[in-house]
Amino acid sequence: TKTDHHYYSVISLDLGVDLPRLLVTPEGFFGRIVGRLTNTDIELESEQFNRAFTVSCDDRKFASDVLHPQMMEYLLGFPEMAWRCEGGGLVAIRPGEHDPEEVEAKLAALSGIATRIPPFVWQQFGAS
Question: What is the pLDDT of residues 9-36, one digit of tens each?
Fold first, then answer.
């Protein structure tokens, strides 16, 4: 038998409210093909964003509400960052370890995502 170890680093920002699962990952050829074949890659109004990222969410309206034009423009500044909304947090995961500067930068990016979620979305899910 053979054992392989895969190490991942997780950075999480507590939102204080449970939001639906939304996954945004850098677009890759394989992900694009799978997403189109399974109809799980949500296409938004920005073709540049669609080429850069794969979006998966059971609630397409929620994805569209969160990933509005200003949010998509912001996220294009972080083309390598995979992140998700899950439960009560925003989470960034990557293979390997984050160095301290990267932790600060990713927390700032996640905070930027949180501040760009429209107020009506927060209200819809019970945030005060």
Answer: 889 999 999 999 999 999 864 445 444 5
Among 108, 55, 44, residue whose Cα is nearest residue 85 = 55
CB atoms within 10 A of CB 63: 20
- Selection from 38, 86, 37 nearest residue 66 by Cα: 86
pLDDT above 70: residue 116: yes
Amino acid at 89: G
pTM of the shown model: 0.84
pLDDT at 96 (0 to 100): 84
What's the rounded Cα separation, in Å, for the pair 78 and 91?
A: 14
Q: Residue 87 gets which letter from DSSP?
A: E
Q: How many whole angstroms from its chain centre is CA 74? A: 12
Dihedral sign (CA 38, 11, 113, 87)? positive
